Amino acid sequence: MGPIPLQRDSVQRPGAVVAGQGDDRRPVARTSLPGIPQASAAARRFVRAALADWTGLGLPTAGEFGERLTDDALTVASELVTNAVVHAGTTVELLLRLEDSAGPEPAALVLEITDHHPARSVRDGRAERPDPAEYGRGLQLVATLAESWGITYRTGLKTVWARLPGDDRYGLPDTPAGDEATRRRALRAEGPLTPPAGHAARDDAGWAGRGGLSFLAEASGLLAGHLDEDLVASTAGPLLVPGLADWCAIWLESEGGGPAAAPRLAGVWHRDEARAELLRPALQKEPLRLPGSVGTGPVPIPWPGSATTERGDVTGAALAHRIISGGRTLGAVLVGREGTDHIPDEVAALLADFVRRVGLAVGAARAYTRQATISRILQRGLLPSKVAEIPGVTSALVYEPGDDGVVGGDFYDLFPCPGGRWCFVLGDVQGSGPEAAVVTGLARPWLRLLSREGYRVGEVLDRLNRLLLDDAMEAAEAAALMVAAAGGQQIQGGEQMQDGSQSRFLSLLYGDLVPQPGGGVRCTVASAGHPLPLLLRPDGSVHPAAEPQVLLGVVEDVAYGSQSFDLAPGDSLLCVTDGVTERRSGRLMFDDDDGLARVLAGCAGLSAAATADRIKQAVHAFAERPPDDDLALLVIRVDADADEPGGATAAG
Fold this sequence. Notes:
The structure is a single chain. This protein has a six-stranded antiparallel beta sheet with strand order 1-2-3-4-6-5, covered by helices on one side. It has helices at residues 39-57, 67-87, 138-145, 180-187, 210-224, 229-240, 273-285, 345-382, 434-452, 457-486, 578-581, 595-601, 608-621; strands at residues 18-19, 26-33, 92-99, 108-115, 148-154, 157-165, 247-252, 264-270, 299-301, 316-325, 328-338, 393-400, 410-417, 421-429, 506-515, 521-528, 534-536, 542-544, 563-567, 572-576, 584-585, 588-589, 631-638, 647-650. Helix 2 runs antiparallel to helix 3 (138-145), helix 2 crosses helix 5 (210-224) and helix 5 (210-224) runs parallel beside helix 8. It is of the alpha+beta class. It is 32% helix and 24% strand. The chain is elongated and about 95 Å long.
């Protein structure tokens, strides 16, 4: 049930959205981005796709915009989204709007970036900055590129907008309409990410203007696209060499290694690859660690001498910057230029801005790694180490948590109970992360306790529903007291608490199995807001095996019922979470037109493990992208004869 993680590149192409009616129609495209570092890269992809779609459809005013304006739009979107993520930390809405010319006013492209934390002010270059390592050029860059910009405050929202005109300030040449190649060459800005081959051809003064701004915006998107610190370093090096330096090296401090642990050399780059191998040993002997007293500015470093060439006759200037994030030193970047005694001030300033972005990317990668590690540990503790083996029954389980680095919302269990019963559970908590872990940590042990106390299937769900409602009420009351003490706003409804927690909604499939003396199994099952279990007979017929009921943790006065039926030898029961049924391919879902039942019907005669594997393969093959949500399924099959071994298997 969790949101689609952004690192899966889930932002779709905007298409041509036209607002208004008649002659007042204006092309508009909008998207919502989560408040994570990768949002700026996703914003750039979205803006590029929107402008390309509008131009391809020949919409009014779109044709007036060339590649230079596209670059500016990408830069403004990237910087404003980054500003919102860093300083507000909420979900960000991005809107693009094309405006026709009106009177003397030229046509324009308007960008609006909205966050949900109006109490946080927008940072600009004139504001006091307690942590300069977290600061980029932000609104200074927007003010340089936009004709006008501003901030609009509404209840609960803050919007920063910028207007980019499509007039002749972009230098559109007066060329024949058919000479599109000439026009595109004239529009194309100098690309800072494809720099000249040697240091002699560098235009250092150019880096202080549009070239430097475009370079930083592009670098921000590239660096934020990685959730591994070594990939961040391997991306940063080629961006610096040979465009800004002849060689560079990046060191990263060990995570939690303490002051005694030497930083490790993450990479060395030289415009001559052979000379990079000469430089590496010398740099490895003396790891670079800059003291905190040097601040965030450049630090001159002695030239490594003969390490850069076999002859030892090359000299130059070298500068180092600390990599900082959240006030902590994460490493250092060292750059060198040959044949000079200093690095120009404009280049040093650009390097400082670039290293700040490296720091943000490395910090985000480390936070993600820590979160993923904690999630794996929590997940192992919240799920059973193994499931029970049932006499005369074979079971197979597939569990694949969503690849988003947080605790998944799906959980399962299969355990024995007194009286010759075995109980099975497949649940799906609303959301993911710590909130999901809390609910799973409550639900699974309580289910085991209630089951072993002899409560019937419906009664177990009744009591678990009461537990979730009581827990949610306590959380709401605690949040209300916090708000009242702080003089804050009143909580509206019960779904979103002031502290950001969610009401504890849970979909659950729960049942028990009782082997019968004459063969087969008596099954009793109840579904609470969960995809219904499917019963597969040996002849290939498939039938739902339960009735739909409301989610747990939603309604107080509800009595859950259950359905009982017999599983004969050769029968299989399939239980899944919505990661299976709601697997998407465009607008289609896997279970549209009973898609799951049709796949299951083709599994007649297969073992539990083979059935589970076939369902899993069908779910994965349904769309090109990997599944976004947690995926869990349980197959329970009654052995066809007494000689067939029972037990439990894992099919994924």
